[in-house]
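Help!! Second protein's tokens look totally different from the first
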Amino acid sequence: MSILQSTNKRALRKAITTTLRELSQSDIQSQSQAIAEKVLSLPAFQQCKTVSCYLSMPAAEVQTTSLILNILGDLGKTLFVPSITSSDGYMNFVRVYTEEDYRSFPSGLWGIPEPTPEWSSKKRQSSASKFRAKSSCRLIVAQVFDADCNNLDLILVPGVAFDQSLSRLGHGKGYYDRFITSYSSSTGRSKPLLVALALEQQLLEHGQVPMFDHDWKMDMIITPDKVITAPQA
């Protein structure tokens, strides 16, 4: 990645974040509700069994509480949410069992609810675990995916900005890109459908979001009035 490319990402992230912070809470809630209705009506969402949904910040992004409660109320679906428990750059997905479970999460960094390690005195089911090993005098942290955990069918993805060509600009930590790469390369697992949720102010024109080799494009972007998908070949 060149210095110029990195600078372009940082500048775009800063500009969009400034715009999002100026949005009223009522505007964000209104847009979020319209987006939730579109997600719930998607055939791909209705047919999937195992869903991951991010836990939203109190402001500046699509709110996901109504989506989470809907998923938890659907007996045919299992919900996983992101969990970052250390500073080693790895994100896991852990299961949420009930509405009571979800509402018991304490508020963490940036006001985002944080799943507890246990629910009902039992360790949460997770999509992966970490192991540490040495190779050529170097410490490697890797993920091992839980064979007892159902494959993730669909991931509802957050971001700072997206464009019409399905590119995504995240918060700069690389959590989602690393997880998707590891998950998709593990034996016997297919890539989940990547569905981004975007406020109107987060959607840019084609090619405006810089992309690099390790960045994953979305399969779909949902805004309050659009469902953007890749053109059929």
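Here's the second one for comparison:
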Amino acid sequence: GIMTDELRNFLELNLPKVKEGKKAKFRVGVMEPKVGSHITEATGIPCESNDYVQELLRAVRLHLDQFIDQLKPSDLEKAQLGLGHSYSRAKVKFNVNRVDNMVIQAIFLLDTLDKDVNSFSMRVREWYGWHFPELVKIVNDNYLYAKLAKFVVNKSDLSEKDIPALADLIGDEDKAKEIVEAAKASMGNNHVHNWYMLLSSCQGSLVYVIFFLFSGQDLSPVDLINVQQFAQRVMNLSEYRKNLYEYLVTKMNDIAPNLTSLIGEMVGARLISHAGSLSNLAKCPASTLQILGAEKALFRALKTRGNTPKYGLIFHSSFIGRASTKNKGRMARYLANKCSIASRIDCYSDMSSSIFGEKLREQVEERLDFYDKGVAPRKNLDVMKAAIEEGMTNTVSEEDKEKENGDTTAKKSKKKKSKSEADGDAMDLDKPANTAAAEEGTEKKKKKKKHKLEEPQDQEMAANVNGEQDETPKKKKKKNRDAAESVEPKTATEGKKKKKKSKTEADD
């Protein structure tokens, strides 16, 4: 309900002025009554807003292309569409870098990749274990096992020359020597059978005896090539999983920096994906956020009238794991409260910084100390004041840095200009001496010409003065002859005159 300056200028230009103390002979129809009241208060123009005015404005909007000659219906539709987009963007405050859908997709893909990499690495262990069974006990990591399976291929080809290369792969020389020794004394080479027996008893005194035959076998070259290709595929998948995790970390720091600094990237991303979006998570109360991910247990407890769950996805946070068993519920409730505050700050604040998340994390640490040692934590009001002060100082320092960068760029440009000018002067100094001599000669010639032109003019002026003083025509004739003679080329008298002039100038 606020009148803009543009609207005010338009009304004052196109409407007749209303004199003071007199009623206006017109009325302005306005759709919004608040805008009309503001116009009358600011300008004194009478406005009216009722059903009749609204119907008239609706008809004007409908037939606007007929009132304006050069307006097309397509232009009007484009203008309406652009207005709708700009209005919705202004309301939602849309930012491409803060789209939380990418985080939801990334965390889902990470979970599926974890399952796939684990199942494929187990398949590599089982497949290559038929050829080199001792390698499973030496190397526990799946990625390293796939690397070694691709590098070793045939265990009979391993020798002491390969120990440096194996040490570079594993990062441990002792393990590399152990692998080479195990390859030499492998069961596949000696064709020795190891038997393992597992006994398990249950009710009814039933005993199950299971025998395992696990011996290393020599594989054909084609089988070894297939194992090698599959190990390479597992390595590629695990590397892609690492890159995807780094991408998720960067996106979480852009979208929800406070939530990330408080609870971590993985737990924060799982909370956002389970809620549907960051705005939905910000709308959730702390009690809902606490049991987010434990809906089945909640409804089962409500049906059976049992104990409701104390935590859901928030259980994966390190704070709840560090708390004692009797304080886990309290810690989950307190952490859910801080997570709801952090998510609301991330969703609705224009400034993207992790200061509030760091301060909230400090509060959670203090609460843990309070539960364990009894140390009194700080109040929430004091912590938020400190966070706001830090945020203000950081913004001021960033502005100062930007100014310094601008000053440095200006100084660099000035230095470049001065360097270019110095180079130009140096080029002028480096010109050949012949050109300098030629310029001096031209200057001397110009001076001589100037002197020649100045001397006859002076003589003519003197002749005119003498002619006026002498009345006889004879003297005029003589002086005219002298003037004609002076126009001729230089004589010895001219040289004397020049010398006299130079002496007088030196005396001056």
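Reply: Different proteins will give different token patterns, so don't panic. The first strand starts at residue 28 and ends at 29.
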